[in-house]
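Before going further, learn to read the protein records used in this course. The integers have meaning only within a learned vocabulary of local backbone shapes. The record below shows the convention in full.
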Amino acid sequence: MGKLVLAGLVAVAAVGASPHVLARIQTGSSPGGAVFAFGAVWVTNDGSGTLARIDPHTNRVTRRIRLRPGVFSVARGYGWLWTVNYKRGSLTRTDPVSGRSRTIRVGAVPFDVLAAYGRVWVTAWEAGRLVEVDPRSLRIVRRIRIGSRPAGLRTAGGAVWVGFGRDATKVARVDPSTAKVVRVPVGVRSPAWFVAGTRDLWIEAGDHDLVRLDPSSAAVTARLTFGATLAQGALAPDRTIWIPDKERSVVYRVEPDRAVVLDSFPAGPGAFFALRAFGSVWVSSYAGSDVWRFDPAR
């Protein structure tokens, strides 16, 4: 049994059978973000510059929409797919049926994209802005001065939440109507990304910290330290949180109610992004070219 650090204490990881790998699906070079939408799983491939459609019934790629290398995060909303390209400083809107795309410039090094509250939101890492876009006209509505190195995005409690990289120790709560920004300390460095699907905000920070933040009270209620380079996690169908570790090419499972790390198991090279969809958890292999589909119940 391996030892893991939990809130400054040493916790012993539980030993159990690794989840069953249902499929390993070749999507393209350096798969990054993923989203389920329009009856399929869609994966961005940074190196290949494509958006791949996976049929969840056959576990096969049925379409590759050519964008540009550097395509990274992806979201669904308002009948379209939305991707950002960190190399080109752009946001692209893609029709999932025709594959036709329109692209606008949003600012230097966009990192994440979110469709919520009638808008599309993009973090511009180098520009230090949260960019608000009208989804139909593709007009930039506001460029909100959000702070240095904005990264991940999530919604909670009627607000847009923004994570930050580098030396930041706070996240930001943004009112989508007024653009008022409230900064919330989390007590750890580089609180950059948010776990998807959880009630509270679970924030991946500083490569090896996972912090739970109550979005109503803005209070930190748990902190776990484990792993080497934690990437973007998700709540699985079995109600555990799956956190990929890009450096160790594993996935950690966390029990959110007790805030404990349960175990870890192998995933693809550079395990990066976890997505819950179609009763499975899908994990992209950023240092490789495939997506692993896991059955969390086995």
About this structure: The CA atoms of residues 130 and 297 lie 38 Å apart. The chain has a mean pLDDT of 94. The first strand starts at residue 3 and ends at 6. The two ends are 20 Å apart (CA to CA).
